[in-house]
C-alpha cells in the first residue's frame, strides 16, 4: 500500500493504559525512571513558602467554588459523571488562573507565558529494538539473502495522542535538570523489552499519516513547553492492583512528557533521524482535582530507531513524586485538610523559569530565510506547502479511496486461483 | 454445562450418553513471543471474555488480570477431490494476562532426549548433503540432458 494513504501506526493513547504497560512505555521512549519518588534537586533550591501562604486562601476558595459548581452540575443530571473528570478540568483551570494572576506581577516568564486550554497534541516517532511482526519474518524467510536476518528487530511508528487539560508555553526552553556531564557519569538503566507492542494490548491503525502537533501552529514564538496538566480519570480502569495503578500514572507521565516534547522537537527541526542538538525539559502534572502527582522530564534523545536501538548511549530521564492529596474533602463551605505541600510543589513548577541557552543554536537544521510558509516567494510553492501541510495534519481521509481487495477476490483470485475470471 | 438436548429414548438407543460441555479451553503454544505472564488459549466460540475469566477463576483458581480475545479466520483451500474452495472452522483465541510476578512456561510435552535429537540432526545433515550432491550432478550435466549417468565416466 503506498504511503500516500499513511503508515501502519502503533497507537500510544494517553487514556488507554493496558496492564503492565510501563516497561513498554519506557522502551519506546527510551526513558529511565528514577526509582526514588521525589523531584530533582533543582526544585529544592526554589523557595515558594511565602507565595504559598499568600495564595493559600485563594486556592481554597477556588476549590470551594469548583466543588460547588460540580455538585450543582451533577445534581442536575440524573447520571452524573462520578469520576470527576469535569471537576479536575475546572479546578485546574481555576488554580492556574489564581496562580498566574498572582505571579505575573513578579515573574516575567509567567506574564509572557501562553496558556492553551485542551490543545490538540499528536506526536509520531520511530522506535526500534522490538521483535519483527509475523509478516515481516515470513517475508525475510522467503528470500535466501535475508533469511539470516529474519529475527532482527524492526522499526515501529509510535503515535501518541494527548489530551491535556491545559498547557503553558514559553519563548525560551526550561533549564536542564541534569547537565551533560552528569548524564554521562550516571548509569541510567532501562527495562528490557523485545516483544511486539501488540502482545500487551497496544492497538494499531493501518493508514495514518505521520503528524506532529505540539498544540501550536508553526511560526509561533512560544515554542517550548513549560507545564502540562493531565487528567487521571482513566486510573479507575486499572486492573485492581495498587502497584499497577501507580505504574499507570508513571506510564502516563512518561508518554505525555515525551510525546509533547517530541512534537516540539519536530517543530524545531529535529526528528527520529536527526537527533536533538540540546536536551529539552518539561513538567507534567496529573490530577483528578483531589490527588496530584508531579513529574519532571528531560529529553536527551529522540533517535532510537533500529540502527540506534542498541548503540544509542543517551537516555531520557523521568522524575516523579508520590501522589499527594490537595484536600481531604469538601464539607459544605469548608475545605477539610488542605495540604499546602501540594500548592508549594505546584508553585515550584511555575516559578522554575525558562532560560536562554547560551551559545546554542535552537534550530540548527532550519532555514533562517524561510521560517514560515509565508516567507516563500514562489506563489505556487507557498500555496502548495500550506495546503498540503494543513491537509496532512488535519487527519482527514484522502479523497481518493485506497486500493481495496474484496473478500471474494482474496478467496477466489489470490488464495485459490480458480481461473473463473481469467478472461477479464 | 451443555446445551445439547437429551434425546428421547428410543428402543435400541444407548442407555448412557456422555455430553461434553459447550465451554472448553485449550492451552496452545504462542507462535509470537510473548511476556512470561501472558497465556494463550483456543476456546469455544460461544465463550465471551466474562465466561473465560469465570472459567479460569472459578474452576482452576487462576487470577486473570486481563482477558483479550480475537477470532482467527483460517486460510481457505481447495477441496482435494472436487476442487471447490473450502474453509476450516474459525478459532477463537484468548490471551490471558496473569499478575506480573507470575511466570508461565509452556510445558515440554514430549521430552526428547539428547540421543534422539542427535540422530535427527545427523539425518538432516545427510539429507542436506545428498540434496547438495544431486544439485551438483544436475549442474554438471545441464548441457547433456537426458543422457544416462553411466554414459560418462
Automatic annotation (TrEMBL), chain A:
Write down the InterPro entries for this protein, in alphabetical order: Ribosomal_mL37/mL65 (IPR010793), Ribosomal_mL65 (IPR039982)
Its subcellular locations are:
Mitochondrion
> In the UniProt record, which is one GO cellular component term?
mitochondrial large ribosomal subunit
Per UniProt, the keywords (alphabetical) are: Mitochondrion, Ribonucleoprotein, Ribosomal protein
According to its UniProt record, where is this protein mainly located? mitochondrion
One GO MF term? structural constituent of ribosome
Keyword Mitochondrion listed: yes
Q: What GO terms describe the biological role, i.e. biological process, of this protein?
A: translation
Q: What is this protein called?
A: 28S ribosomal protein S30, mitochondrial
TrEMBL record, chain B:
One GO biological process term is: mitochondrial translation
Source domain of life = Eukaryota
Q: Primary place of residence?
A: mitochondrion
Localization, per the record, is:
Mitochondrion
Any GO molecular function: structural constituent of ribosome
* Signal sequence extent: none
According to its record, what are the GO cellular component terms? mitochondrial large ribosomal subunit
InterPro entries, alphabetically?
Nucleotide-bd_a/b_plait_sf, Ribosomal_uL23-like, Ribosomal_uL23/eL15/eS24_sf
The answer to keyword Transferase applying to this record is no
Q: Which UniProt keywords apply?
A: Mitochondrion, Ribonucleoprotein, Ribosomal protein
What does the similarity note say? Answer: Belongs to the universal ribosomal protein uL23 family.
Complexes and interactors: Component of the mitochondrial ribosome large subunit (39S) which comprises a 16S rRNA and about 50 distinct proteins.
Q: Name the chain's protein.
A: Large ribosomal subunit protein uL23m
Amino acid at each position: 500500500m503506498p504511503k500516500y494513504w499513511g503508515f501502519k501506526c502503533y497507537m500510544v493513547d494517553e487514556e488507554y493504559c493496558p496492564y503492565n504497560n510501563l516497561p513498554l512505555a519506557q522502551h519506546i521512549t527510551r526513558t529511565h525512571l528514577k526509582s526514588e519518588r521525589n523531584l530533582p534537586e533543582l526544585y529544592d533550591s526554589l523557595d515558594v513558602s511565602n507565595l504559598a501562604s499568600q495564595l493559600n486562601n485563594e486556592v481554597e476558595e477556588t476549590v470551594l467554588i469548583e466543588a460547588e459548581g460540580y455538585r450543582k452540575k451533577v445534581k442536575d443530571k440524573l447520571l452524573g459523571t462520578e469520576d470527576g473528570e469535569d471537576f479536575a478540568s475546572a479546578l485546574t483551570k481555576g488554580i492556574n488562573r489564581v496562580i498566574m494572576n498572582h505571579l505575573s506581577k513578579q515573574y516575567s516568564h509567567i506574564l509572557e507565558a501562553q496558556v492553551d486550554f485542551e490543545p490538540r497534541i499528536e506526536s509520531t516517532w520511530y522506535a526500534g529494538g522490538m521483535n519483527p511482526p509475523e509478516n515481516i519474518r515470513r517475508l525475510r524467510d522467503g528470500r535466501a539473502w535475508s533469511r539470516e536476518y529474519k529475527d532482527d528487530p524492526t522499526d515501529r511508528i509510535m503515535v501518541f495522542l494527548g489530551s491535556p487539560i491545559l498547557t503553558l508555553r514559553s519563548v525560551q526552553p526550561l533549564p536542564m535538570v541534569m547537565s551533560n556531564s552528569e548524564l554521562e557519569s550516571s548509569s541510567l538503566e532501562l527495562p528490557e523489552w523485545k516483544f511486539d507492542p501488540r502482545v500487551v494490548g497496544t492497538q494499531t491503525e493501518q493508514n495514518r499519516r505521520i503528524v506532529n502537533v505540539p498544540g501550536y501552529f508553526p511560526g509561533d514564538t512560544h515554542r517550548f513547553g513549560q507545564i502540562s496538566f493531565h487528567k487521571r480519570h482513566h486510573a479507575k480502569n486499572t486492573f485492581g492492583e495498587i502497584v499497577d495503578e501507580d505504574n499507570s500514572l508513571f506510564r502516563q507521565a512518561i508518554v505525555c512528557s515525551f510525546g509533547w516534547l517530541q512534537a516540539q522537537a519536530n517543530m524545531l527541526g529535529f526528528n527520529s533521524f536527526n537527533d536533538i542538538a540540546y536536551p529539552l525539559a518539561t513538567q507534567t502534572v496529573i490530577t483528578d482535582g483531589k490527588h496530584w502527582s508531579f513529574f519532571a522530564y528531560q529529553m536527551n534523545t529522540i533517535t532510537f530507531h533500529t540502527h540506534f536501538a542498541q548503540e544509542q548511549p543517551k537516555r531520557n530521564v523521568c522524575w516523579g513524586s508520590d501522589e499527594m492529596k490537595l484536600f481531604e474533602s469538601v464539607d459544605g463551605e469548608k475545605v477539610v485538610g488542605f495540604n499546602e505541600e501540594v500548592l508549594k510543589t505546584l508553585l515550584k513548577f511555575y516559578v522554575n523559569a525558562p532560560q536562554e541557552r547560551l551559545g546554542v543554536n535552537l534550530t540548527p537544521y532550519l532555514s533562517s530565510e524561510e521560517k514560515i510558509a509565508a516567507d516563500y516567494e514562489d506563489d505556487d510553492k507557498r500555496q502548495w506547502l500550506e495546503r498540503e501541510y494543513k491537509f496532512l495534519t488535519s487527519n482527514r481521509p484522502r479523497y481518493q479511496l485506497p486500493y481495496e481487495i474484496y473478500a471474494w477476490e482474496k478467496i477466489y483470485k489470490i488464495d485459490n486461483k480458480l481461473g473463473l475470471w481469467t478472461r477479464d | 454445562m451443555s446445551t445439547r438436548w437429551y434425546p428421547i429414548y428410543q428402543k435400541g438407543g444407548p442407555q448412557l450418553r456422555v455430553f461434553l460441555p459447550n465451554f472448553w479451553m485449550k492451552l496452545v503454544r504462542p507462535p509470537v513471543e510473548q511476556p512470561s505472564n501472558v497465556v494463550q488459549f483456543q476456546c469455544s466460540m460461544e465463550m465471551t471474555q466474562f465466561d473465560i475469566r469465570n472459567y479460569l477463576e472459578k474452576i482452576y483458581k487462576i487470577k486473570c488480570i486481563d482477558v483479550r480475545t480475537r477470532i482467527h479466520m483460517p486460510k481457505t483451500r481447495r477441496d482435494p477431490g472436487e476442487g471447490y474452495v473450502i474453509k476450516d472452522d474459525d478459532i477463537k483465541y484468548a490471551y490471558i494476562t496473569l499478575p506480573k510476578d507470575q511466570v508461565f512456561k509452556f510445558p515440554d510435552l514430549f521430552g526428547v532426549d539428547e540421543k534422539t535429537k542427535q540422530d535427527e540432526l545427523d539425518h538432516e545433515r545427510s539429507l542436506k548433503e545428498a540434496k547438495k550432491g544431486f544439485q551438483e550432478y544436475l549442474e554438471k550435466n545441464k548441457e547433456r540432458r537426458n543422457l544416462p549417468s553411466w554414459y560418462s565416466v
